[in-house]
Amino acid sequence: MRALLGTKTNKSFIVAACFLLAGCPHEPAEPAGVSDKPENAVSSAQTPSADPTPVVLLEPVPFDALPGWHEDRTAEVLPAIMKSCARLVAQPADRGVGPDQVAGQVMDWLKPCEALVSLPGDDDTLVRRTIEAWFQPFSVADNGRREGMFTGYYETELDGDVVPQSPDAVPLYRRPPDLVSVNLGQFRADLKGSHIVGRLEGAELVPYHDRATIDGGALGDQNLELFWINDPVDAFFLHIQGSGRVQLPDGRRVRVGYAGSNGLTFYAIGAHMLKEGLIPRDQASAQSIHRWLRDNPGQAEAIMHKNPRYIFFREIEGEGPIGSQGVALTPGRSLAVDPDFMPLGAPIYLDTTWPASDRPLQRLMVTQDTGSAIKGPVRGDFFWGTGDDALAEAGRMKQEGRYFLFLPKSVAERRQLGS
After folding, report:
1. Within a 10 A sphere around the Cβ of 90, how many other Cβ atoms?
2. Is the pLDDT of residue 143 over 50?
3. pLDDT tens digit string along 110-122?
4. Average pLDDT over residues 358-387
5. What is the DSSP string of 308-319?
């Protein structure tokens, strides 16, 4: 029996396709709200559905139909589940979960969450049996197509200080006080969820300063510098990513995250570099773009300024990075999805392949993040973690795959009864 979720119009760290195609950054809607998740740009732009109007079909399947289900180290997902459950159960019991309450109400999650968070974290079989007792898997399809695109993202690390250490150091700015975000839904019902960002000039709202203007010193007299980054190319990539850790000279690693943007449209500089023949098409990668910019400082600034979008940052204490659900992401177990179609905080079983290979990558994950490039019913971005090893996987990941959404059995029963 298939369940129809409905139809909706689609509303994001460094992978080559993000620089080659427009629309990659992950970020929350303006204003940032509960999410610290920014421009997660380690993902590829999505492959559009052949049908311009996505239609989600959920079909219940047995656990034995999940490829590799019995081989997954299921206990590894418990930290992610605990974080999402804590976020869910703190909400009113009658609040809907997911678009059109596809995942029921918070009350449907109370007992499953209670059962899971009380488990020991080292018994895969016990975790698997508990999930099987409380959840029903559903295959997810878009107009009958179960396969979609899965990319990867990571948290970068870069060197910096509280004061500039070289003439080339560039600042990470806090959100400026003159940055204005307007909720257009307050003015027109058909614009609900849409925002526009700018600044006031007299009584008129105008676009905010672009990257070139800000780099030229437009904010230099406002004491907004959060940290100074030693390498301007690293800083630019952090703007694409939106979240990272700054290594300070005293040995501290400080996490920074998205605090807002100037609201201007992201431009993929890799497309320009390919067009101008600056990098060979068969060698295009995040690493090759980064290397070219660093090796050609005389041209790098002008190329980076072609992306007018600018990100503002804040210091984040505790675990991170923080996903759109408002919880710290778990490497290898957090997945970014399109919230127009998938609920946040839900277990989801991924069936794809390891980056740049045909080796199966099959594991239980949790939907804890979103991104502006992550659009469509079957579309995901895999969080690999922090640093160079994570970049090595994220930078190569652009795999076909599918996933299965886990819903509490109380929700599944109502769906099958048509209520």
Report:
1. 8
2. yes
3. 999 999 999 988 8
4. 93
5. ---EEEEEE-SS
CA–CA separation, 317 vs 298, rounded Å? 37
By the 8 A CB rule, do 248 and 163 touch?
no
Closest CA to 333 of 109, 81, 96, 112: 81
Closest by CA to 151, choosing from 371, 362, 381, is 381
Closest CA to 21 of 1, 5, 38, 43: 43
- What average pLDDT is seen over the chain? 87
How much is the pLDDT for 194? Answer: 85
CB 131 within 8 A of CB 347: yes
pLDDT of residue 19: 57
Q: Which of 344, 415, 416, 405 is nearest to 146 (CA)?
A: 405
* pLDDT(411) > 60: yes
Strand order from edge to edge, sheet including 180-183: 180-183, 195-201, 204-206
Structural tokens at position 320: 């991170």
For residue 354, give the H/E element and its range: none
Q: How confident is the model at residue 4 (pLDDT cuts 50, 70, 90)?
A: very low
Residues contacting residue 265 through CB under 8 Å, at least 6 positions apart: 22, 308, 309
Give the model confidence (pLDDT) of 206-217 as tens digits.
Answer: 999 999 999 999
The verdict on whether omega for the bond into residue 52 sits within 30 degrees of 0, i.e. cis, is: no
DSSP state of 328: B
Strand partners, 138: 60, 405
CA angle 215, 320, 169 (to 5 degrees): 25
Is residue 173 within 8 Å of 224, Cβ to Cβ? yes
- The residue type of 290 is H
Backbone φ and ψ of 387, nearest 5°: 95, -170
Sole residue written with tokens 């948290």:
155
Tokens of 279: 């990098």
**Torsion sign (Cα): 47, 50, 56, 58:** negative
- Percent of the residues in the chain that have a pLDDT greater than 90, as a whole number: 69
Q: Which residues contact 297 (CB under 8 A, 6 or more apart)?
A: none
Residues 164-180: tens digit of each pLDDT: 999 999 999 999 999 99
Query: Tokens for 62?
Result: 């047995």
